[in-house]
Amino acid sequence: MPVITNIDDLKRLHKKRTPKMFYDYCESGAWTEQTFRENVSDFDKIRLRQRVAVDMEGRSTATKMIGQDVAMPVALAPVGLTGMQRADGEIKAAKAAEKFGVPFTLSTMSICSIEEVAKHTTKPFWFQLYVMRDQQFLENIIERAKKAKCSALVLTLDLQILGQRHKDLKNGLVVPIKPKLGNLLNLSTKWQWGLEMLQTKNKSFGNIVGHAKGVNNLGSLFSWTAEQFDPRLDWDKIKRIKEMWGGPLILKGVLDEEDARRAADVGADAIIVSNHGGRQLDGALSSIRMLEPIVKAVGDQTEVHIDSGIRSGQDVLKAMAMGAKGAYIGRAYIYGLGAMGEAGVTKALEVIHKEMDITMALCGRKHIEDVDRDVVLVPEDFEGRWA
Ligand SMILES: Cc1cc2nc3c(=O)[nH]c(=O)nc-3n(C[C@H](O)[C@H](O)[C@H](O)COP(=O)(O)O)c2cc1C
Fold first, then answer.
1. Which residues 6+ apart lie within 8 Å of 360 measured at CB?
2. Among this protein's residues, is 166 annotated catalytic?
3. Mean pLDDT split into 10-residue runs, the chain, 387 residues
4. What spacing in Å lies between the alpha carbon of 155 and ligand 1's midpoint?
5. N or C: the chain end with fewer CB closer than 10 Å?
6. For the residues of 292-304, what is the DSSP string, one character each?
7. Distance of CA 28 from the midpoint of ligand 1 (Å)
């Protein structure tokens, strides 16, 4: 096994071992990719305060997210098509998360279905919902998530209209899928990926095929998907979904103080400060820049979580110091999955945990819950003066 010391090592292996069209699907942002880049580079602007002569024995990163025990305040974000990065990718990632003691969030647009993931895991996972026009499908998928004992519903708000990623269009990763000749040739060189894919039955959108009316084959799946994201989603509908679900609700994709207050008012158990990893509104501010204003806006009305741009345990620690109660990793675990399957996801979690633990100690804190604003040095103009 290659020596893996950081998330970038996993990213290099992911690139080498996964068909280009799927690596590109992961490693891209909308349009100019400004927000995608700044999600990462803005974390670098924040520095840490070195502290010494503090007893550092018996440290712990264990805490709670929405009242649920976690080994560290990190969850796996919902990522569509995870089962194309590696065969049965969602099952592999869910198993790694379960063993590590952190939440796994299954995307509506996953390859493995809710039921498949439930069959291969023993603890509840979280389910991410995209609101579709088809009301029957919507009610049914919420019921399926309940039946599978999912312990939180993550409702994504920032993708009712699809952003554009140039690489996907150039690779033909569009609906319906039209891979270019170059992509097909590239695919034929990824033999390990191909062999694993040949051995699984999970090759399409498992939550949709056979569950949405009239969607029984690839052709009907593509036309259904293209039309279904419901652009009419509003706060009233969010309230109705909350009632339908009846369990812990996390609202994902909040990047504005006013929206954060609305989300708290509808009774969300948590909100995720997120710009979808820079895949939607290019030109939006990075999540880490918006974190403190949003924490201030909602006070203790709801828990504030964050994603977008987290590539290390230091990033997680910075977010905790600035008021987040949880952080999600998207690409960081997908790199691990594409690199080495379940072992790679475990490696990504181990890397992040170790970085967080050592950083916490060197900053003079023994417990993740003691990490506060004093741990970080944030440039005075970090939030920026925007009018
Ligand atoms: C390849 C890819 C697919 C994604 N698919 C979904 C999805 O199906 N549902 C969703 O809510 N978010 C989705 N996201 C967004 C992630 O949940 C998360 O917000 C984002 O990855 C965080 O940024 P990071 O990758 O920089 O950590 C996706 C992200 C990526 C990279």
1. 59, 61, 317, 366, 368, 371
2. no
3. 94 97 97 98 98 97 98 98 97 98 97 98 98 96 98 97 94 83 90 96 94 82 86 97 98 98 98 98 98 97 98 98 98 98 98 98 98 98 92
4. 13
5. C
6. HHHHHHHTTSSEE
7. 11
